[in-house]
Structures are given as structure tokens and as C-alpha cells.
Amino acid sequence: MALLELDRVSVSFAGLNALTDVSFTLEAGQIRAIIGPNGAGKSTLFNAITGYIPAHAGTVRFAGRDVRGMLPHRISALGMRRTFQNGGAFASMTVLENVLSGLSQQTASSAIGLLFGLPKARAAERQALARAHALLDLMGIAALADRKTADLSSGQQRIVEITRALAAKADLLLLDEPAVGLSASERDHLMRVLRGLAADGIAILLVEHTIDLVMAVSDCIAVLNYGQLIADGKPEAIRSHPAVLEAYLGKH
Ligand SMILES: Nc1ncnc2c1ncn2[C@@H]1O[C@H](COP(=O)(O)OP(=O)(O)OP(=O)(O)O)[C@@H](O)[C@H]1O
Ligand SMILES: [Mg+2]
Fold this sequence. Notes:
Elements: E1 4-13, E2 16-26, E3 31-35, H1 42-50, E4 57-62, E5 65-66, H2 72-77, E6 80-82, H3 95-101, H4 105-115, H5 119-138, H6 154-167, E7 172-176, H7 184-199, E8 203-207, H8 211-217, E9 220-225, E10 228-233, H9 235-239, H10 242-251
Parallel strand pairs: 3-8, 3-9, 6-7, 7-8
Antiparallel strand pairs: 1-2, 1-4, 4-5, 9-10
Helix pairs in contact: 3-6, 4-5, 5-6
The chain binds adenosine-5'-triphosphate and magnesium ion (MG).
Magnesium ion (MG) binds at residues 42-43, 85.
């Protein structure tokens, strides 16, 4: 059984069909990219999967459960974590605080225990700190731990957001244009991190305009155009797919 399964998912906004009959599957440990021209429906697809907007038709199954109509925080608690196209790191927090804020609710509720000085809660806090520091290391931003997020470059803020999304255990990670504002070396690092996460069994859905990154990192690529899936296949096949070339050449 696939980890994520979309079956004829459709979304419309006041008569505009933003997504029409989109179907695909994603297995654990797979990286699937969603590409397509501006306005094709990529972010809408993420919103429909994660519960931020309702899909008007079709089914979204995650880990064997029908999640269509569920609230975002409930879907997230099932092990689906996301980032946002316009950035979602908390600007006023430090980098470390951002990552800690992404930790699971069990850890957050132990804050009450901490208030009363319970040893179990203190142990949980130590564990949370250790995990946050390990993630900062993994993402290459350990040196920024105590910096205020607002003072970082936009690329670094994006990496903070991804790190926060990783803080809680995730089976599926949805990244909406994670490489925007990243330097070439930050981008290379991100690619290696994504491959590493996939090797650990995490499934990744990636919306990205940087075609080189998409080609290098993805197991399969789905192409959206005007809300419809016009191609779906391995990177080599997508690169030369006639409908894909037409959609891109028609737009740019
Ligand atoms: N909340 C909304 N209300 C009305 N229309 C919307 C809404 N969100 C998206 N749309 C419309 O749906 C279509 C798809 O938008 P979407 O943001 O999903 O595209 P995208 O592929 O993510 O584009 P980009 O590459 O620019 O991020 C567009 O025509 C957009 O204007
Ligand atoms: Mg978008």
C-alpha cells in the first residue's frame, strides 16, 4: 500500500478549476517532484493534501486513512509535515526556538511537567534539545542556533523552516519551493539532506522551479498544467516529454 494516494482530487475556487482529477501515489522513501508553470495548482495541491483547503472531490489517503476533510493539525499529527511557499519560520524566535517549536505535542505538553520540576519532563526537555541540535547540525546551521531568525538571509530562514518541519517525526514531508533564496552551496547541501531523509524512509513531495535540483533529486516527477496532471514519470522521461515541453515553452 502506498503511503500517500491521491485519487481524482479536484479543487475549485469560485468557478475556477484549480485542480482537476489529480491522481498519483507516493511510497515511503520516495521523492516525488511536482512541477509546472506559475498558477498551475502546485501550492493548491499541497493545501488540499494537508487539509488547509478542502478538496471538492476525490480522495486523499495517507497511511491507510482517508484524510480528506480532516483539519490540518490532525493530519499533521498523523506524520505529515509541510513548509509554506512564502516561508513560515517565526521571525522573532531564535533558530533553536524555531526548531523546538516544531517538536511534537507530547514534548510540548511536558512543559507543564517542567513547570512542576518533574524529572521525566526534564529528561524530555533534554531529549528535545539534543534532537534540535542534531537537526541543526544535519542542516548545516548549527552555528546559527542562537541567532534571531529575522536577522538571517532569506535562504537561511528557509532552511530554518525546513528544520522545524523535520523536528517532529514525519513520514511525509511536503516542501513548497524550498530552494528559493538559497546559495548554490546551500542548495547542494539541501539536495544531499533530502536524499538522506529519503534513504531513512521518509517520503518527500517537492514543489520546485529549479529544474536541475528536481532532476537530480527526484525518483519521479508529476507535471501540472492548468490544474491537470499532464505527465508523470521518471526524470529522464519527463525531460523530453512533448506535453511538458509544450507547457513550458508556451509559458516562457
Ligand atoms: N485561495 C484562493 N482563492 C482563489 N483562487 C486561488 C486561491 N489559491 C489559488 N488560487 C488560484 O488557483 C490557481 C493555482 O494557484 P497555485 O497557487 O496553486 O499555483 P502554483 O502552481 O503554486 O503557482 P506558483 O508557481 O506561482 O506558486 C491560480 O489560478 C490561483 O490564482
Ligand atoms: Mg505555489
